[in-house]
Input
Amino acid sequence: MEEQDRLDENETQPATSAADTSVLELSFSQIEAFTMCPQRWWLTKRGNVRRAPGEFLILGSAVHQTIEADLRQRMANQPPLGLDALKQMFSAFLREQFALEDPDGIIPSARRAERERDGIAVVIAYLAEIAPHIRPVAVEIPFEFAHPDDPSILFRGRMDAITFRSRTRTIVDWKIVRRAWPPGEEHRKMQAAAYLWAEACMGWELSNQVTFITFPPDWSPEPGDSVRKVDWRPTKPSAEKRQMYAQLVREAAAAIRAMEAQGDFQARPSPRCAWCEVRGACPAGERYLAENNIPPQMPSIT
Ligand code: SF4
Output
């Protein structure tokens, strides 16, 4: 997995219960999870099992909160927050996220410290290379709408930011990646099509592009230190690609309903099981990692 997405970033309310089949609530991250492994979707949405805390998920949330605070300050024409203030803010958000997501302290303190160094490095890169140029007009924008072709599907989500500069309206998505994306990766991301489709369905002004701003690791002269750089990846999904995404949502909803009727959400073991937060409830995933000698990247919680 290139980076751990904030799987539930857009879902502040519980999904519909298994008994309520009239409306199916979906999000980009749910569609992605279901497409990769139906069993994972079921365990996280319906199975009521414990999830392992994800240190990169926690890091991503704290970075998003920090950047959001800075952008709101700029939008309100307040003096920008300086580096020390942002670093302190990030560390406080990180502590809060660890307390919330990992109250039992499953993630060792050394790993927590590594993630703090990563986050501070991201804040430094953000302040040096993005903050002086970005022109935000909205941040953390929620959306929710019934699928235009099937009102029984409710699609929900959240955009990180919208900027407007040189007559270009851009949806911005921050990603804390573990390694730099290969060339052209941004054009393969269905998330960009999903965002533009959402704008159209909400009746909003359509953005000209989606820019993924990733923060891959950079070489550090100090062993154990963390340095991050900024990698801007703009993309302009076509109208056909937006329609493809709308169709994908319908197909995923139909497959979920069919599996629900059969009571069978298949497990699809793969190297991604190493990153699965519900692997502790999935014997197939545990077996796959053991048989293929793949080290788990998330703890197994039962
Ligand atoms: S461990 Fe693997 S097979 Fe099992 S639910 Fe997770 S992703 Fe699917």
User: Anything to note?
Assistant: The CA atoms of residues 39 and 267 lie 5 Å apart. Residues 1-19 have pLDDT under 50 and may be disordered. DSSP finds nine helices and eight strands in the chain. The domain at 24-258 is CATH 3.90.320 (Lambda Exonuclease; Chain A).
